[in-house]
Amino acid sequence: MFGKSIPVFCYHAVCEEDGHSPETFAAHLDVIAEMGFQTISANHLYEICMGRRKLDKKYVVLTFDDCHISNWLTVVPMLEERGMKGVFFAISDFIGEGNIRSKPDVPEILPMRESFIKALSEKDTSQFMNEAELKSLVHDKGMEVYAHTRNHQGCFKDFRSRGNYSAGSHWSTWGIYRKFNAKLPVYENGSAFAYNGFWPIFKKGRVLFKRRTDEERREFCRKDFSTCLEKIKKINGARRQFFCWPWGHFDSISMQEASLCGFSGTFTLERSANMIGTDPMHINRIGVGSSKDAAWIRKRLLMYGNEAPAMACFKFFSKKNDIARVLYITDTGKLSGGSRQLINSAKAMRAAGVEVVAVLPPESGLIPELEKAGAEVVVLEDFKNLFTAANFLSKIIAEKKVDVVHTYHNRAVKISCIAKGLSLLSGKSFKLFFNRGVIYKPNPLAPLFSLIGNGYICNSEKCREVLLKHGVPAKRAHVVYNSFAGGGRKPRRAVATTVTYVGNSGHAKGPDVFIKAVESLLSQDPCEGVRFIAVGLEDLSAYKDIASPSTLERIECPGYVSHDEAVRILAASHIYVMSSRQESMPNTLIEAFDAGLATVCTDAGGTSELIRDGLNGFLCPVEDVSAISASIKKLIDDGDLRKNMGRLNRKIVRNLMSSSSKSRSLLGVYSSLTKDAPKRGPLEIDALLDD
Residue 487 above 70 pLDDT? Predict the structure, then answer.
C-alpha cells in the first residue's frame, strides 16, 4: 500500500462575490504545477481505475460543480494559460441559450446561493454557463462537461425545524415550494436523490407533508438522470458519460439508477484513494472551501497523492436522520388514553408516509385499529421476562430496519432499554423515546432511562416539568401534544342542551366534583330541558351522600362505552365538563374540542395550555364546585357564547392538533440531535385565536 493515488478536487464558483478569490485559485494551480502534478480528464481517471492505463505519474483531477459563469470567465482562462484540464458538471435545466459571453455581456455576478435562487424561482439562468459556452469548453478548450442532474433538487430530509420560509432560507427551499410564502415552515435540507424526503402537499389552505416511497424516489432519479444525460450528450458527444452527485449524497437506490441510466462513473464527496481497482462509480473527491489557501492544497496533494495516507484519511457519506420506519411498543392491551395516542401516532406516521411496526401482547385491543391504520403488528407473547422480550425486540428492530422505537407504558421502557444495549453490541443503532402522559412521580430510574435512550416525549409542559423536577435532563424532555384523528364530520347536536362529563369513577377524575356542581346548579335553577350525562359512570348510589336523589336522577349514566360511542355522545352535546383533580392532557378534552364544544375545566395539569379562560372555555380552580357550576350556568344561558367557544376549539384541533400537526411534531423529535434544543410547547393558540 505504498503506491500512488489520484487526488480529485471539487470547486464551485471562483469569484470575489462568492468568497473564493481568483488570486487564491491561481495559487492553488501554481502549487499543483510546482509539485509536479499533471491534470487529467475524467476519462483518463476512469481508464486508470479500470486498469487500462498505468498510474505512472503524479496525476490530479480538477472538477467544477454547477458551471457558474465565473468558471467560464475566470477558471477556464487560468487553466488554459497553464495547459491544465478541467472537468465541469452542468445542471441541465440551468443551461440557457445564447452566444458565448465575455465579462461585459454578463449581468452583475452573484454568489452561488443567489444564482440558484434566481434560477429556481425566476427561471433566470444567466448566472450559469449557457449551451454555447459549454460546447466551446469541450470542442475549443479541450475540457470535459458532464451531468449534474436537472436542477440540483433538494428536499426536506427530516423535520429538524429551520424556522419559517425567509430570504435567509437554504437556497434549495425555492425548489421545494412552488412560490415564496413567509408562513410556510422550513426543515433540514438534503439531496432529493439520496433521501426520500418529506414533500409539501397543499390541501384546503394548509400544507401537509408526506414521505416519498423508495419506488417513487427511484422513478424520480430515473427520470432526472435520463433527461439530464440526454441534454449533456448533445453538448459533449462523448461515448462515456460521468455524473456528479449533488452535495455528494447518494445511496444504493440512486447509485443503482445512475448505473442503469448509463453513467460509467460517478463523483462523490467521499474521501479515500483513487487508484487502479477503484470502483469508478465511487470516485472520491476533496471539497475545496473558499477559505482554503495554497498551503492547504499542498497538504492535500501530499495526503491524497499516495495510497496509504489517502486510504487512512477516509471520509464516507452516511445518511442521517432518514426516518423511514418507526416501531411502537406497549405491554398493555387496553384502549386507555395512552393507547389511544399510540394509535393516533401510528395514524399520523402512516399519513406522513412513514412505515409503522407495532409490538403488542396477544389479543390486544389495539391490534384491529393499528392494522386498519396500515401498521404491521408483531405479537410479543411474554413481556414479563425482560431479557427474553428485549432479545426478541432487538431482532425485530434489525429485521424490520427500524429507525425509531417509541415506547408506551413502563414495562416497554425497560425492555427497549435492554434492546438498545443488545443492538449496540451487534453494531445496530436506533433512536429510542419514551412516552409520558401522566404527571405523577416518575420511576426513580427515569433520568437513567433518558440517557440510555434519546429522551421522553411528554403530552404537556406540566408533564415535562415533573420529569425535570425528578432529574431528567432538560434536553431529554420534549413536548408533543396529543392529537385527535377525527373523521371531520360536522357534529349533530341534540335538541336539548346537553352537558357531558367523560371519565371514570377514579378520585383523580373528580366525578364527585362534577356531581356536586350539578347539584349546586340545580339548587339554583331547575334547568328544564337540559340533559346531564356522565360517561364512564354506572352506579350513582355511591354519591348519594353528596347529592340529592333528584339530582342523581337527572344525570344519565351510560357506563363504560366504546371510544366511538363516546365521540358520538360528545358530538351530540353542547358543553363538556372536565372536573379532574389530576391530569396531564386528557384525550377527551381534545375530542370535545374537535366536536366543537364549549368547555368548563379545572386547572389541572396541562389543561391551561389549551384553554384561555373566558375565550374558548372556562378554567376553574381544582375542586371549586361553585366556579364550575357558575360556568356551566353561563354556557347554558348563552347559546352564542357556546357556539363561539366551540368554533374556536374546533379550529385549535383542526389546525394545531391534527394528525398532520402531530406527525410534524413527532418527526421533529425523532429527527432531533443531542445538541438540538428540546421541542417545547406551548401551542400557538393565541395567534390562532387572534387570526
Answer: no
